[in-house]
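User: Fold this; tokens only.

Assistant: Input:
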Amino acid sequence: MTAAAAASPTSTTCPTTDLKLLQRFELLVEGQRASLPDTGQRLVAFLAVRSRPQRRSTVAGTLWAETTDDQAAANLRTALWRTRRVDRNLVCSEGGYLRIGDHVRVDLCEMVERVHHLIDDDDAGADAAALAATADSAAITTAELLSDDLLPDWYEDWVLLERERLRQVRMHGLEALCVRLANLGRHVAAIEAGLAAVAADPLRESAQRALISAHLVEGNVSEAVRQYDVFVALLDDAFGIAPTDALRALVARWR
């Protein structure tokens, strides 16, 4: 089904719609790339990123903050009309609120959900086989967590804020993945995740702690101590401070 057919008033079912916000904006309707003007893209992306219904006035005021209220409202109406030509249920209107359609699959939301599943999963009492199954089902790779940024070519304030939020989610995901894989005995993958986290933010102590712990679990004391010394030097050079007692305690036995 083409985008034009999806927008037909005679259509009785929602088309399969995929929205990609990581790395770039891309909208696929029934597997076919759909074209949206700039205003439509920003409306759809804003609602997808916020993930919950937004007041029409909030949407208009955020996306067209440089105009008058009347002009912003008119721009919003035009953007809505354009999105409905592609998929009439892409944006749903409920009273004074707007939200992304329930049938729209958003890659950002799926990635964040998988990371939270990995971070929040309660492993108390679980055996190695169950842990392995959980890690595999999460299907989170270092590339997904580290390389896929939110709309990197967009510079609106709301995008910058959401991009930083996503970066924090990714960092926590990499750290959790490092710890999880180390406990499973998957040392190479654990070190890879830890190195990715440290590379993304070398001054982040929780990332350094995850990597140092992974080295110790593998039995590579020298690697753990070397990584600790590198971090101590970085901290001292950047801020003139020392690591926390918790991190020092990790390597105290071998210092």
